[in-house]
Design goal:
The complex is a heterodimer. By secondary structure, chain A is an alpha/beta fold. In chain A, 27% of the residues lie in helices and 20% in strands. By secondary structure, chain B is an alpha/beta fold. The chains are: A alpha/beta, B alpha/beta.
Chain lengths: 370, 361
């Protein structure tokens, strides 16, 4: 098949219309997904990662509006010749053929996404009959083999969602997403609600299925540590814009954007020496009145006045050998130590409380009374 | 079962604040079935120290917190606060107890009343627990303590106008309103974004230090326990299977279940080796099979003796399936409940440990 990406999102923008003004939830995002690739989309809640993914499948409804860009899909089945499909221009019946058959989604909360009054088999049959032409017997057989695929005993076909554990429900969701052999599976925080042990089992299973069936994955999560292990490439999103894209290795070892550095410094590590954790002070901006320049500036310890004027564009990291490693910050290079005092704070524009810089060695400081 | 013979790693921080002694809690499920949610659990909380309770969902961590908070009746065992047995039978006694022991919940969306303002949420506990105080100044002080500043900006807000982190700060402030000596934090950060979590843990740590709180930190994230806690207790199917100083326990886990927990945590430094390079291999190499805690979801199975982890344990044998091991000391401040520590963690159980245990092998 062609070397082009299966999914190519260009200049994609989504707004939420509110009485108080447009919320620019996704702002001119470029992201592509190659065949068989796992792309991780990381960001805080409210950063627009789910809106981006759902918007690309046109699953949003008012007050969300797609205001620009294109989403080109080029799957093995759908594409005639080398013509890619623009998802944003599809008619409703074409869209229905695309959804699930070509792009399937594993939703965040399996508890709410499964129908509580249908048993597992009926929900799966529903999907298969809605999106594929398949004889009844074959479809029934398929539900069984799908459960085999995700490691759930076939006896569970008759179970209702409430009779399954959280991990099993999530596996059923994955099996349902795979029921129609899609080219792309979008996973929206599929393991967030699960325990680490179950989470690891499921992630391992996802990767194994991907290798066997050859689909691509867009994996959405706020947990960057998970993506570092799982994804081939990682896109870091903040306030509706992409801040950095790079391979998992580059993001981990040579993060170029201060926000990525902040994310990497936010989670305690279980292995290795105890690191100093700085976290990211402050909270995400209000997306209604977007001032020009970098949206991360109020929380950035590298910030300068120049940041209020930059055009947010993803450009290759100067020191990186990989031209695919791009960052929206033109000033900071990988490995630059943060200034002692935030420049923006020193200029008196921002109030950065001093407590936000507690060491990772939380417990070594001398304490009164002990 | 044997009394705890190890010293808590949290003990050196301050005086004893609260003790749970062989605490158990059964829930009746009807048809004569019982769910043993907490089984013979003993631990102590010390002023100015953090004890982390780590385990998967359904392991009984939250039930343990509710028992300590006086919200559930014990099936057996005893809870002592400041050396005195806890008595919460009357309303007045319960209120007195609550002014000492406060609970913070996981979900800041669910634990604040959507129709009340921040001011209302904080004024009530202040009036209840500190009748002499100037309510307004006290509320402002509380907000400043949890760094919701300027306080007047937040007083009139409703929960839906706050971010998740701010909401959780309000619940911390509400807990502090009673001026407690013990704070039970039930997954206080797990609903929050990764980037916010650190700030909240730092805030909790600051409050612990400032008010010399004895803190129980319940979590399923063992990595955060490493950074935040003095002592870690690992819970499985209602039992404490291992306890020890946070750094030691997370770096050299002794119990097979703790080892599984540690191995399952995302490991970015181990790029690609496990998950990406071949999940199949990863699954088969993993000595621990998937599964639920033994008999936990089907209570009939609980009555059968044996180690609750034995169905998933690579070291399990006849002895494990027959008898449930008690917590056995492996160092001055460490203990683990496993018959086969010599196989599971030979480097920890050194020397002439307990040779007699392996006679059934």
């Amino acid at each position: 098949m062609s070397a082009g990406p299966v999914l190519d999102i260009r200049d994609f923008s989504v707004v939420y219309r509110t009485p108080a003004g447009d919320v620019r939830a996704v702002d001119r995002v470029n992201l592509s997904l190659a065949s068989g690739e796992v792309v991780g989309l990381a960001g805080e809640s409210g950063s627009g990662k789910s809106t981006l993914a759902y918007g690309a499948c046109r699953l949003l409804r008012a007050p969300a509006f797609i205001t620009g860009g294109s989403v080109r899909y080029q799957g093995r089945r759908l594409a005639q010749g080398s013509q890619a499909t623009d998802v944003l221009r599809l008619r409703p019946e074409e869209l229905q053929r695309l959804r699930w058959r070509e792009i399937a989604i594993v939703f965040q909360s399996a508890m709410n996404a499964l129908n509580p009054v249908l048993n597992v088999r009926d929900q799966m049959l529903d999907v298969i009959h809605a999106h594929m032409k398949m004889p009844r017997d074959e479809a029934r057989e398929r539900t069984g083999s799908l459960l085999d695929l995700v490691g759930i005993p076939r006896s569970r076909l008759r179970s209702y969602p409430h009779e399954l554990s959280g991990g099993m429900r999530q596996r059923v969701m994955i099996a349902m997403a795979l029921a129609t052999e899609p080219e792309i599976v979008i996973m929206d925080e599929p393991t967030t609600a699960l325990d680490v042990v179950v989470q690891r089992d499921i992630l391992a299973q996802i990767v194994e299925l991907k290798d066997r069936l050859g689909f691509s994955i867009l994996f959405i999560t706020h947990d960057l540590s998970l993506l570092l292990e799982l994804a081939d490439r990682i896109a870091v999103m903040y306030a509706g814009q992409l801040m950095e894209i790079g391979t998992a290795g580059e993001i981990h070892h040579e993060p170029a954007h201060p926000y990525t550095m902040g994310l990497l410094n936010s989670f305690p590590s279980l292995r290795g020496p105890r690191r100093e954790l700085t976290g990211i002070p402050g909270s995400p901006p209000d997306l209604r009145d977007r001032s020009p320049g970098c949206p991360f500036l109020p929380r950035c310890s590298y910030g300068t006045t120049a940041c209020t004027e930059i055009d947010m564009q993803l450009l290759p990291v100067a020191t990186s050998s990989d031209s695919e490693h791009v960052t929206a910050c033109p000033f900071v290079l990988p490995g630059t130590p943060p200034p002692q005092v935030s420049l923006a704070a020193a200029e008196g524009r921002l109030d950065v409380p001093d407590h936000l810089r507690l060491a990772g060695e939380l417990r070594t400081a001398a304490e009164p009374g002990s | 079962m044997s009394e705890q013979t190890v010293t808590s790693a949290a003990a050196e921080r301050g005086p004893l604040a609260m003790e749970a002694i062989s605490v158990s809690k059964d829930f009746r499920l009807g048809r004569g079935q019982r769910l043993h949610a907490v089984r013979d659990v003993s631990f102590s909380l010390y002023r100015g120290a953090v004890v982390a309770l780590v385990g998967e969902s359904g392991s009984g961590k939250s039930t343990a917190a509710r028992l300590l908070a006086g919200q559930e009746r014990l099936t057996s065992g005893e809870i002592r606060l400041g050396g005195q047995p806890v008595e919460v039978s009357s309303r007045r006694a319960f209120r007195r107890y609550k002014s000492q022991v406060q609970l913070v919940f996981q979900d800041p969306f669910g634990s604040l009343n959507p129709v009340h303002t921040v001011r209302y949420h904080l004024e009530r506990p202040v009036r209840l627990h500190q009748p002499a105080a100037n309510v307004h100044t006290e509320v402002v002080t509380l907000l400043e303590q949890v760094r919701l500043t300027p306080a007047k900006h937040f007083l009139a807000k409703y929960p839906h106008e706050l971010s998740g982190g701010q909401r959780q700060r309000v619940s911390f402030a509400r807990a502090l309103a009673a001026r407690p000596s013990v704070l039970l934090a039930d997954e206080p950060v797990s609903m929050l974004d990764v980037s916010i979590r650190l700030e909240m843990l730092n805030l909790l740590d600051d409050l612990r230090r400032r008010f010399r709180l004895a803190m129980l930190y319940i979590t399923h994230d063992i990595a955060s326990a490493r950074y935040f806690a003095d002592e870690v207790l690992v819970m499985y199917a209602g039992e404490i299977v291992e306890r020890g100083p946070a750094e030691e326990l997370t770096q050299r886990p002794a119990h097979p279940y703790t080892q599984l927990l540690v191995a399952s945590a995302p490991d970015p430094d181990n790029l690609g080796s496990a998950l990406r390079a071949g999940a199949r291999r990863d699954l088969t190499q993993q000595p621990h099979g998937p599964g639920r805690p033994n008999g936990f979801r089907n209570p009939e199975g609980v009555a059968t003796a044996g180690c609750p982890f034995s169905p998933r344990c690579p070291f399990a044998d006849e002895l494990c399936r027959r008898e449930d091991p008690a917590l056995m000391p492996v160092a001055a401040t460490r203990a683990a409940a496993c018959w086969h520590l010599d196989m599971a963690a030979p480097e920890i159980v050194s020397g002439p440990a307990r040779g007699g245990d392996r006679t059934t092998n």
